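Lecture 7 notes: from sequence to structure.

We start with a single chain of 257 residues. Read the sequence below before looking at the structure.
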Amino acid sequence: MPTMMVNGLSTNVQLVPADGEQTVVFLHGMGTDSLASFYLTLAPPVAAAGINVISYDLRGHGKTERPLNGYTIGDFVADLHDLLGQLEVDQVHLVGNSFGGTLAFSYAAAHPGKVRSIVCIESEPATEIWADKMTQILDYVIEFLGREESFDWIEANFSAHHRRLARQAADRIMSTSMAQEVPLGPLLSADDIAGIECPVLSILGSQGYQSDDLEALTTFLPNGELHVFDGQGHSVLVERHREVRELVLSWIGRQAA
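Now the structure, written as tokens:
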């Protein structure tokens, strides 16, 4: 895994070149997530199918540098743009999990010519509704992880590994301005979302964060498709990774054709 200076930050990047014409960038979620989530689920089989793979730890996550501030959506988008510029990659398919999908929408809105398609997994664009939801979630996370007994509960109900991940997430969120800056955006309007013309596949759990209206996103998109896993919550990538892998490979094949 090479380390690159991306937008002024030391960034952990994993490249799996497959000498194919299509390139996928995997964008992981916030908090406990890192590029490892895709490395353990989608990256190897996607590369084995002849698709070039780019994964990296977002700023403040994994082995990438953790500045005290600089965590707006605009900062994350600028990181991705600088990374692709340095790698001299013209067009990509963006596959984002949770917050990573949110970044994919914002990047496509800012740089439409760079994005061939989007696969968003339990994700939605950075709208005012999203910002309000994120603020509530992050406030709860800060309150929950601020109590020592919460880590005991996580280990008892999940595992010691989950306890370690929660510790890392707590340190990440509470030692930076991430929770305060992420909901600031820049936010996208309905017109901005309608202007994202690249094909978008939205993969949702029927009991995930968008369970109140599963079709809300795709109705705004000019080229949106929806796949719902019945009975599934927010952890689609982890718990249904085999099915997600097949969806992603089929989707990229269709866009390439």
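The longest strand covers residues 9-16. Keep this in mind for problem set 3.
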